[in-house]
């Protein structure tokens, strides 16, 4: 059984026509080091021509990551599928200093089309998923003043095995409560078979068997084009994925949470009862690994 994760690191997009989070280069690098503890899987990481040599030096030479496990590929975002459609409806002034890049969001699905389909399972995973904002201290190894905020043993081959087992014949996704702890709006209600915005599907990790990932990409492309061409608006990939969860419910295996915060990163003054009432994101990951 062959497993592949698709991810990306573009650290220098803030202030450009693409937009993106500021100062995340080291975050993404050290987080991906932790994700690579899933040594029974292969990874491909897309990046800019500007960053590729730095990333190769960091992973291959400074941290002895095998080029067989992690392939780093330069990809010009102007070569993104539907780049011209995105450009037509993009509000550049708004995007420049926003924290989401539409090209990267949509390529979470379309980079899969570059694959030779030789793997049995494919997953998208955000390179920055392993960090103290999402994982409590008990899963972090604070052995370095900076690296320790991202250095976790949680994502290992045991997690990988359970991820495969829990995926089964579905597409595994993670969804957040969007009622008591509202997070995001959604696409217009007319695109829903039965309107339901109670769960917001996140884009941090999703995937499954190759055959199912092919269907997922086809459905995303269909809905992406339909919604954007009709609304003349760019929607976040999570909003489209949330629609897909509701309209094609039978194809998904959902793991659910209610708040991003956890016991060691909640705002000052938050009551302990908050974490009894609300399920933290990391507990959805625990549901995959331990239950």
Give an overview in words.
With 291 residues, this protein is an alpha/beta fold. The protein contains 10 helices and 8 strands. 34% of the residues lie in helices and 15% in strands. It is globular and about 50 Å long. It has a single domain, classed as Spore Coat Polysaccharide Biosynthesis Protein SpsA, Chain A (Alpha-Beta Complex), CATH 3.90.550.
- Indicate the percent of residues in helices: 25-40%
Summarize the main sheet.
8 strands, mixed
| Overall 3D shape | globular
Number of strands: 8
Q: What's the CATH architecture name? A: Alpha-Beta Complex
- From the helix content, strand content and strand pairing, which structural class follows? alpha/beta
Strand fraction: 15-25%
Mean pLDDT equals: 95
| Helical run tally | 10
Order of helices and strands: EHEHEHHHEHEEEHHEHH
CATH topology: Spore Coat Polysaccharide Biosynthesis Protein SpsA, Chain A
In short:
The protein has 291 residues and is an alpha/beta fold.
Index terms:
alpha/beta; Spore Coat Polysaccharide Biosynthesis Protein SpsA, Chain A; eight-stranded mixed β-sheet; 8 strands; 34% helix
Secondary-structure blueprint:
Layout: E1 3-9, H1 25-35, E2 42-47, H2 52-62, E3 70-74, H3 83-89, H4 92-95, H5 102-110, E4 121-125, H6 157-167, E5 171-177, E6 199-201, E7 205-209, H7 210-231, H8 237-247, E8 252-257, H9 274-277, H10 281-290
Helix pairs in contact: 7-8
């Amino acid at each position: 059984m062959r497993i592949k994760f698709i991810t990306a690191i573009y650290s220098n997009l803030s202030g450009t026509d693409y937009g993106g989070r500021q100062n995340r280069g080291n975050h993404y690098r050290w987080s991906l080091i932790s994700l690579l503890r899933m040594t029974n899987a292969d990874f491909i990481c897309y990046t800019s021509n500007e960053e590729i040599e730095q990333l190769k030096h960091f992973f291959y030479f400074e941290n002895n990551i095998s080029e067989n496990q992690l392939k780093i590929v330069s990809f010009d975002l102007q070569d993104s599928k539907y780049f011209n459609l995105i450009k037509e409806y993009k509000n550049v002034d708004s995007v420049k200093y926003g924290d989401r890049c539409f090209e990267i969001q949509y390529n979470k699905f379309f980079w899969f089309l570059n694959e030779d389909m030789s793997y049995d399972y494919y997953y998208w995973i955000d390179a920055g998923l392993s960090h103290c904002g999402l994982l409590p201290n008990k899963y972090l190894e604070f052995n370095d003043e900076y690296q320790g905020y991202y250095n976790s043993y949680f994502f290992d081959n045991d997690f990988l095995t359970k991820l495969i087992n829990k995926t089964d014949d579905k597409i595994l996704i993670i969804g957040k409560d969007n009622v008591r702890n509202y997070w995001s709006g959604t696409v217009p209600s007319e695109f829903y078979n039965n309107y339901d915005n109670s769960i917001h599907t996140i884009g941090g990790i999703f995937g499954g068997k190759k055959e199912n990932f092919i269907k997922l990409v086809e459905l995303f492309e269909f809905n992406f084009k339909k919604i954007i061409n009709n609304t003349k608006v760019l929607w976040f990939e999570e909003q489209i994925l949330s629609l897909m969860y509701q309209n094609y419910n039978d194809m998904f295996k959902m793991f659910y949470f209610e708040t991003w915060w956890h016991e060691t990163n909640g705002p000052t003054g938050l009551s302990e009862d908050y974490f009894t009432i609300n399920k933290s994101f990391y507990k959805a990951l625990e549901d995959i690994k331990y239950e």
